[in-house]
Amino acid sequence: MIELLTVCTGNVARSPLAEVLLRARLRGLGIRVTSAGTRALIGHPMTLEAQVLAEAAGARAADAEAHRARLLTERELAAPALVLAMAREHRRAAVELAPQKLRSTFTVREFARLAATVPDDALVAALEGLHDPSDRLRAALSLVSAARSASAPPDDPEDDDVVDPYRRSHRTYDLAAAQLTPAIDEVARVLRIVAGRA
What we know:
By secondary structure, this protein is α/β, with parallel strands linked by helices. The protein is built from 8 helices and 4 strands, in the order βαβααβαβαααα. The protein has helices at 14-26, 48-56, 61-66, 88-97, 108-115, 120-127, 133-150, 170-194; strands spanning 2-8, 31-37, 82-85, 105-107. The protein is globular.
């Protein structure tokens, strides 16, 4: 089974929203998605605003309601084959805890930006002859990572981050969802190909 981890600060808004949206889009593919926070509000539920956005974007209400915040630790980073941070500070924190995850840790918008340069047929060709899900994901991540050197970084580095909506306005939550949802869809595109279900 492939495991993914999404990471933000408190683990009550951005990363659980990403978690439940990925679960919804990857259901039935044998991919486990969890989330954690660098300064988690341990045991707290997802904010109501994030729950509403999650359900509106296709997540199951039960998944959103069941969420409880967890702290990002080295142990939480042991199993995931892909770590998707909500911002560069979270990516840095994850890699500091688990340096071996450097090549498999991205901000979610960075991953989407890079993956968008890799067409479906290139991904399918890179996975040809590979049957183990972990091997297939590693090959796909290598292709996405290679796009780092082949494509220019964004003009504004913050374009790779999802804005933090916690304790902010509904407008800020809407902006976070508008930044996150297309990135989640791009991640799901890659992972469906990895799972052979494009």
